[in-house]
Amino acid sequence: MDFINKIFRGDRVIWMIFMFLCLISIVEVYSASSTLTYRSNYWEPIGRHTMFLLVGTAVVLLTHSIKPRFFSLLAIMVPVAWGLLLVTKVMGNSVNGADRWLSIGGVSFQPSELAKLSLIAFTAFVLSKQKQGNLKDNRFFWIMGFAIPTCAIILLDNFSTAALLFVIVYVMMFIGQIPWKRIFQLTGLMIISLALFVCFLIFVPSDTINKVFPRGVTWKERIKDFNHDKKDITDPAIAFSDDNYQVSHSKIAITRGGVFGKLPGNSLERDFLPQAYSDFIFAIIIEEMGIIGGIFVVLLYVIFFIRAGIIANRCEKIFPKYLVIGSALIIVSQALANMAVAVNLIPVTGQPLPLISRGGTSTLITCVYVGIILSVSRFENPKGIQREVAIAVESEEEKRESNEVAFEEENINAGEF
Hints:
17 helices
């Protein structure tokens, strides 16, 4: 038990939620990856995913041992992320019509994940530089100067990620007491920009959009499909079509689950949903674990967010406080977006369910966020600091006792000799 306490430090609630999510992930990804087993051997999909979770756990352990002040170095990675995103546009691997993956030395990753992490760290760092007295507050312009280019580059291939990231930066500025005048101006600009963008997608012909902005055609079809799904589903021609194939089977999975579910491994819709192990894994969770299981997963993310808020509230330093808020926001907002898609509340976005969906880069970066929150809970919270001191004292006492025992044994052996 002492060994576990020395290894898994930081907030225990965050650790428990992390472990629960990883356990649910292994069970559900193993069940939902049936379509992948036909392309490879039986154990390859779950073996790969389990390996990423194990590496992710090591990443959490490493990250939560770093003192929070060193995370400010992540802010300088924003220009690097820009370069990687632009290189991905030219040399990236296209998946479903989007250039999101970059391969370096045979290792594929999503530069957008690095961009999210670095921009959140940069925003937290700038917000921590509060101006005193009558000095001009330029934090808003610094943040926008880095957030707009980052989100604009991501927007070229991933609207949902760009929009989600920009909203998180917006919320961080709101919490960070950026002047109200700037917040109101940005809010109005966001509303107008979004309205114009949606009108552009709806009213401009697809052929014209494809010439100017090829990825826009995909978003236009998703909006159309979402509105299509809201029509009279008693008509079989509307209920099932190529346009709403995924959403229809997601609804079937949720309906089949009922209250208690069909138990893990008994899903039928996993064989019909193309992204059952990723984008629509929440529907599979409900099918196998029922509404009870779905509510349990939702509560895990809610408790995670509340606990992160408590950790941030206890911080005496400003940078760690905003860094925890940004890290918790990105994890929980992605989770809510994924679950909203599964129950057809919003159009398909492609956002994974953090720590549950099958993934590589997204899983590891999510583990970095968790490690950051745990690090702050260790080094920046009064209770965490007291616990660290107690563990250090206990460790020193154990060493001293061990040395005394060894010394006594040496004297006894010398006497006998």
